[in-house]
Structures are given as structure tokens and as C-alpha cells.
Amino acid sequence: MENARMSQVLKFNFLVFLLILLKAEGFFVPITYIENAVAKGAVCLDGTPPAYHFDKGTGSGINNWFVHVEGGGWCNNVTTCLARKSTRLGSSKEMAKQVAFSGLLSDKENLNPDFYNWNRIKVRYCDGASFTGDVEEVDSDTNLHFRGARVFGAVIEDLMAKGMKNAENAILSGCSAGGLTSILHCDRFGALVPASAKVKCLSDAGYFINTKDVSGAQHIEKFYSQVVETHGSAKNLPRSCTSRLSPGLCFFPQYVVSQITTPIFFVNAAYDSWQIKNILAPGVADPHGRWHSCKLDINNCSADQLDVMQGFRSDFLRALAVVGNTSSKGMFIDSCYAHCQTEMQETWLRSDSPVLQKTTIAKAVGDWYFDRSPFHQIDCPYPCNPTCHNRVFEPDNPTKNATNVPNNTTNGTSNTSSSATRVSFPHLSKEAQWTGHLVIKRGISGLLLALVLLVNL
């Protein structure tokens, strides 16, 4: 009896904790479908309308706009695009009706002091090519629509009609494949918003580099070329790059960023966990799985593997060097094993968030945007930074991977939005982690399901 009573008390306390956590660090925002975009051919892979989540600005932020693009990787051929077509990464019908806003999208001044009262938008990602594709023909057998560039235009047009035409300040940001979107479309975004507005871009975990994998092959270069060819992306990639290089190379930021004229800030881990898993040591380059345990948890890496990862960091910094060191281009490059650090409150701004020069990501970005001070910091090599939140991944689910991650290289998603790879957050309890994954995957329905299940345990 005493044990049963204690169990009930613990469950009640945990439910209270969940509600407090939700109120303190996140809130749910409903989905908006752009129905009139369908007539313009601006649609997801399956032909459904584009969508976004919009929380309106208030007070001094009423004419300020923060447009954040969701991550979700890429599909490089008909087979991998068909695998995404019936998921939230290819169809707005499959998207959660509400998503949690936190981190850079938070509406709490203490958690997001510079942008909490702005108009904050999360653009859903359903085209598979970082909003660059545009193929007029639709194969009747597959019904695949490669129209990402049109979707981007339709989203911006819809937001303009809802007040962004009066923007005084505006930011285009994104995480992972969305972070690449914010790079490739930075100047385009700057040209679309009012000329009088202060416009800058922010890329989180979007600086994917062109380097060899552990077998010596240029796996990611071939993959990106296939993405560009499949989606007809060439005409929508920066002309400053495609006039010099093959279009496939222009999907890599290192060949594009030096020509971007709109101010842009890069947040990235030098040991980006997605890039380590899928560019440096993809499954195709590691047939015997020697890197499997290391990729799940950096603490499991051997001395030799860590040496290889240090080499990856060197390659990353060389690719980053083209950014230069001007006040218009900022960077926060930490030495964490992570991927996407702006969407989660624990890494954006909290008492235990990662810091460089005693500065959190939120403060670095805010200071840079408002011209309070430039920020251009690169961390020392791993494991020098004790403030890092290094991700620990769960073992892959073969069934899910067969559907969502063909070749182990098609789903460059953020930790906060991936349906194929789950991660744990060491600073949270297992119960909180489990609930977090439900909420991320299913929105408000996930939280309700978690509460019901916990009550009936």
C-alpha cells in the first residue's frame, strides 16, 4: 500500500513538473495552411499545400519578423522522395496540427530577451531540397512534385499579406536543412522584404561541408549532385556560384557564403553530430559498423576515431574560413557533439547553456543582430568546453531507417525534429526525455497521450 501511494505521489509530481516545464520553456502554436498556393503549383512533395506556424508579435515587436525554417534533410532520387511523400517531410496532411515553440521562438522575455515579442514563424519543410527545386512536370506514376522554390515564395508572399510588408526588422533562420535554406535564400529573402527593413540571416547547423568520408570517397558530393538534379535546383541556387561551379557544388555553403551580401550569422558545432554520422562515417563507408557506437555517443569513440574527428574539425574550419572576419558575418562555433542548438531552450538560453567567451548563443546572436557588438568565436578542440551539451543517440531502428533514411544519408534532420533518429538529452530525466519526444513528434496530442499513459501506469 505504501509503495502504491508513493508511486501515485511520484506520478502526480511528475505531471506537475511536465506542466510547469511546458509553461516555462515552450508553448504550442497551431498550423496554418496556405491553401491558395496550390493553384500556383507551390506544393509539398505529394501536392498538398505548404504550411507554417505563426505566433503574432506584440508591443515593440509588432513590426519585427523572425522566420525560422524547419529541418528535415533531403531526398536525392524518386525512391527516397517517395519514402518521404507520405510523412510530415513530404505532406502537410501528416504534420502535427500544433508544435511547441521554444528557444529562439520562445515568447518569454527571460528565455528569449531579444526576440520574444516578435512575429515568430516556423516554416514547415516538405520539399526535400531546402526549398530550391522547381520542376514543372509531375510524373503521373509517382505524383511527386518538386516545387520547393515556389513554396518558399508562397510562404513569404503569405507572410507579407499578414504584415511582413511593414517589417522594420526581419530575420531568416533555419536549423539543419533549414539552416542550409537560410544560407541559400538569404539574399533572396533580403530582396523580398521591405528595402527599409533591417534584414539579417541566421543558419543553425546548416554549414554542411564537402569532404571525404572514412573510406576516402566523396559520398556527400555525389549525394548533393543527385539532389540538385532530381529537384531541378540549379536555376534557384545562387548565380554567383553556378556561374563558376557545377550546380551540385553550389549546395555546399563553402562555395556560396563569400558572395552573400546580406549579413548572416552561423551557429554550428565543429563536431556536428549529423555530419559525423552521415558525411564523415556514413553506413556505406563503414560496412562493418566500426563507427556505430562512436556515432551514437562521442564518449564511446576510440583514440583513433577521435583523431579522425579532429581531422574533420580541421576540414570544417578550412571550409568555414571563406566566411571571413567582418562585422556583417558572425559565428558561434562550439566544440560540442551536437546538431541544431537554437530551437531548444537548453542550448539557446538557460543557466547551463553552452557558452563561448562566457556568452550564450542567444546573447551572441542578439548582440550581433542589433549591432551591440560583433561575435566571431571558434571554440578550442574537443573536449575542452565543459558547457557543451553533447547528444547521445539511441541505436537506430532498422524498420524506420528502411523507410525514412535510405543509404543513411538522406535525412539531415535536426535533433528536435527527426522522426528517424532519436536522441536523449542528458540534462533531463528519462521520463522527461520520453515525453519530449512524444511532444516533438505529435504536438499537443503527444503531451496529452503522455499524461494519459502516466496516469494509468
From TrEMBL:
<keyword id="KW-0961">Cell wall biogenesis/degradation</keyword>
<keyword id="KW-0732">Signal</keyword>
<protein>
    <recommendedName>
        <fullName>Pectin acetylesterase</fullName>
        <ecNumber>3.1.1.-</ecNumber>
    </recommendedName>
</protein>
<keyword id="KW-0134">Cell wall</keyword>
<dbReference type="GO" id="GO:0071555">
    <property type="term" value="P:cell wall organization"/>
</dbReference>
<comment type="function">
    <text>Hydrolyzes acetyl esters in homogalacturonan regions of pectin. In type I primary cell wall, galacturonic acid residues of pectin can be acetylated at the O-2 and O-3 positions. Decreasing the degree of acetylation of pectin gels in vitro alters their physical properties.</text>
</comment>
<keyword id="KW-0378">Hydrolase</keyword>
<feature type="signal peptide">
    <location>
        <begin position="1"/>
        <end position="26"/>
    </location>
</feature>
<dbReference type="Pfam" id="PF03283">
    <property type="entry name" value="PAE"/>
</dbReference>
<keyword id="KW-0964">Secreted</keyword>
<dbReference type="GO" id="GO:0009505">
    <property type="term" value="C:plant-type cell wall"/>
</dbReference>
<dbReference type="GO" id="GO:0052793">
    <property type="term" value="F:pectin acetylesterase activity"/>
</dbReference>
<feature type="compositionally biased region" description="Low complexity">
    <location>
        <begin position="399"/>
        <end position="421"/>
    </location>
</feature>
<dbReference type="InterPro" id="IPR004963">
    <property type="entry name" value="PAE/NOTUM"/>
</dbReference>
<comment type="similarity">
    <text>Belongs to the pectinacetylesterase family.</text>
</comment>
<feature type="region of interest" description="Disordered">
    <location>
        <begin position="399"/>
        <end position="422"/>
    </location>
</feature>
